[in-house]
Please model this.
Amino acid sequence: MKATLSPSSRQKFKAAALIGSGISSLAKRRSGQEASIMTFHGLCDGMGDEKVLDWSLHLPVEIFRRVCAFLASNYHVISMHNLVSAIEKGDGLEPNSVLLTFDDGYASNYHLAFPILKEFNLPATVFATTGFLDGTERLWFQRMDLAFGTTALPHLDWDFEHGKERLQLTTRAQRQEALLKLLPDLKRMPDEDFLSEIGRIERLLDVSPLPPDQLPAPMRALTWDQAREMKTSGLVEIGAHTHTHPILARCSATAIEAEIITCRDRITAELGEAPFVFAYPNGGPGDYTKECVTGLKDAGFTAACSMINSRVTLESSLLELPRYGTPESVWEAEATVSGAFEAVKAWRRSASNTFMSFLS
Ligand SMILES: [Zn+2]
Model:
């Protein structure tokens, strides 16, 4: 049988190769005037809940702690406020600047991440989905995770864009596979059909959505008191991440405006200060539009983060700051923030170094 590496194993292998070869040290020395923004979601304390299928949104807290210890010793972890001010004034960034961000607003940001941020004195930004914190909106991807995780049905027949398919749901692995298969199709749907489709899938799977206080622990939202305490510490900035977490490019102009304004106003009402930074849900190149960027500007935001993987430079557009995903190890964090991944990409583009093709 041919041995294959999972995408995550391949990423770890690449990271280890870059560090072992010294490319990360070289890249780090050359990366002045640039910053890397890292994206996290929730954290978990290793007590895996069988009900949660997608653990990619909940990094084990021990890995987060090791990443923070590494960054605190080797990098300048700066706040979003400092990054924005450096770009606005054009007066330069500390060499090897890194930013930590958390999307959605999970309770674990307070219970698990905040003590570690305090221990290492590292600033961070939490992007709050305000309806999630209010307890009035459930995150659609959590509803799907729980529907596939808890249904008693053995399969679901589904009309994919490529045709009808039967998704088997007997084992946990099958449920995870079914969820991963369905999510890309769902993310492409227009927003006006979206929530009714989520409700239809729940009915097809014969499950009812759980109220917020019955969610498995990793899926629970921050409370506004916890958000206030983190903000008051001076270490955590609270940014905006819409009110209901739709993919904005699938929304009408009216819905985009409502998501931005409601989110801004809820944060302002709860924390006494308007947020200046926003994160686009999903955040890929096709997930937000020029209208979203203009809408944010009109609503008084000065910065916004995408999920387009790249480094921030002093020339970066403040309302489309690139970010990296969640590292699954300290090696991956180092290869990312040192600029090693980018250096190899640039090197391959310019020199066609075929022997490095394993790093593509
Ligand atoms: Zn999000």
In short: Residues 103 and 127 are 5 Å apart (CA to CA). The radius of gyration is 21 Å.
